[in-house]
Amino acid sequence: MSKHLEFIKKPITDIIDEAISSCSGINDGIETFPLGDYVMHSLFLKMTGFQEQKMKCIAWDMATEDFEYRRKLLYGSNYGEYSDYKSKKDIYSNLIKLIQKLDKGLNIQGAYRTQLLKESENFVTETFKGTVLSRMKQKEFDFFCNFIKTPNNKLFDIKQICPDDKNIGAFNHIFQSELRDFYTDSLYKQRNRLAHNTLSYQNNLPTLNLLLEENYDQDNYFVWFTVLIIIDKIFIDLFSTYLDLLDSAVY
């Protein structure tokens, strides 16, 4: 059915694997540490760009199958580069609606959320552990490894993922407020800084007040990578569910 199926099902984690493989020949002497920022910037941009293209492909494929959604996409939607939270949330909620047309009993179980979160966290910790990239960013990596083990972690809490709004009987948000705000105020802001190279002319040194904020250390690449992986897994799983329901639908 889908011309984009192979790409949509390709995990974003492949990009991390490629980056680590490409850096395998770099030693971890102090003279190579300036490369850390360049590599992490490039990896982050490749991942955000990959995800933006995937959102477009999912939207196009949904429009191919559902004429009502096609009309909405062509005449009423403006997702731009599909990079901000709102555009991803709109694709998500519309995909949910199309699934519910075929199966009204859709339910995203707590066990799925737990597995999704653990797989994403474990991939980042296990894949980067012992690599030259984690050594170049040792402080940030150590923070991440400790952060995900912190009890009552408000950011990486299963309640933050695919919340079920029981008031309206629908899944309208990918994330609950904590992760949603982090995506907009931290991850998306960094995406724009790098994509538009604003770091080349803006004075982006953090203020002392910002450095004192409780959540400042969360603004690091390993946390951002984990959030992008969570989003990617959600869309791969939901789109696969949608295709399975289409294949079994009786018209």
From TrEMBL:
Superkingdom classification of source: Bacteria
Entry protein name: Uncharacterized protein
Residues that span the membrane, as ranges: 221-243
Keyword terms: Membrane, Transmembrane, Transmembrane helix
